[in-house]
From TrEMBL:
This is SDR family NAD(P)-dependent oxidoreductase. Belongs to the short-chain dehydrogenases/reductases (SDR) family. Pfam families: adh_short. GO terms for cellular component: membrane. The lineage of its organism: Bacteria, Bacillati, Actinomycetota, Actinomycetes, Micrococcales. It comes from Rothia santali. Transmembrane segments: none annotated.
Length: 252
């Protein structure tokens, strides 16, 4: 257990999360990136029959995600996953986890020529190191529950452009994390899946940069991705859907 000092706000939120988990018999799903367009829909869907621990940076947007879920079970946990040393201090306190959905990501565009070392570090820390570390911390709970880890990948890992190199590289790396983990925990009853959406109608595809704007002609709805995540989690116990590629019905 790390000795990282947590803020009073984080400590209070964590106490509320622990109490909610201890008070329910529902399966518990930890969802990162819960305040984003895709994450909100995943939270709303999973909360129909699970307690969702909604993790994100912005308390206000997390509260909106909880409201979006309506009467469903969502408890919010504001947390900056980019502060890697705090992940153990926060998440090792969770008494039970049945599913972990790693959906948090950033996607600023950059070419190899333009990307700085800081750009690479931010991208890889957020999109690869943080989900890998969170998964490591929660593995004991997932082994106890014979649960599932879902990584949200991206079609960008197979469709690289000159302008999304850092993002595409991070999603390639995340797929490697998932594949290696799946082999590691194969005998532990833990399932590992990657759900990789194509272009999805979220703010992530609304770029504010000087690169050419070649917006996809057809976008997937975030609700469709949420349904795909549920499909993976609810797969029969004797199987795992290792990779799910969610593409527009008609591709440009």
């Amino acid at each position: 257990m790390t000795h990282t000092q947590l803020s009073e706000e984080t400590t209070r939120a964590l106490d509320d999360v622990v109490a909610a988990i201890e008070a329910t018999d529902l399966p518990v799903a930890v969802l990162t990136g819960a305040s984003g367009g895709m994450g909100r829909e995943i939270a709303a869907d999973l909360s129909k029959d699970r307690l969702v621990v909604a993790v994100g940076r912005d308390r206000g947007r997390l509260a909106e995600a909880a409201e979006r879920a309506g009467a469903g079970g969502v408890v919010i946990l504001p947390c900056e996953l980019g502060e890697l040393e705090a992940i153990d201090a926060v998440f090792s306190r969770l008494p039970r986890v049945d599913a972990l959905v790693n959906a948090a990501a950033i996607a600023p565009r950059a070419t190899v020529e333009d990307a700085s070392v800081a750009d690479w570090q931010d991208m890889l820390n957020t999109n690869v190191v943080a989900p890998a570390e969170l998964t490591r911390v929660l593995l004991p709970r997932l082994r106890e529950s014979e649960g599932i880890v879902v990584f949200i990948g991206s079609g960008a890992s197979r469709a690289v452009t000159p302008y999304n190199v850092t993002y595409a590289a991070s999603k390639h790396a995340l797929q490697a994390v998932a594949d290696g983990l799946r082999k590691q925990v194969a005998d532990d009853g833990v399932r590992v899946s990657t759900v990789s959406p194509g272009p999805t109608d979220t703010p992530m595809v609304q770029w504010d940069d000087d690169y050419p704007k070649a917006a996809p002609r057809r976008l997937i709805e975030p609700e469709t991705v949420a349904r795909s995540v549920r499909h993976v989690i609810d797969a029969p116990a004797d199987t795992q859907l290792a990779e799910v590629w969610v593409r527009p019905r008609v591709e440009a």
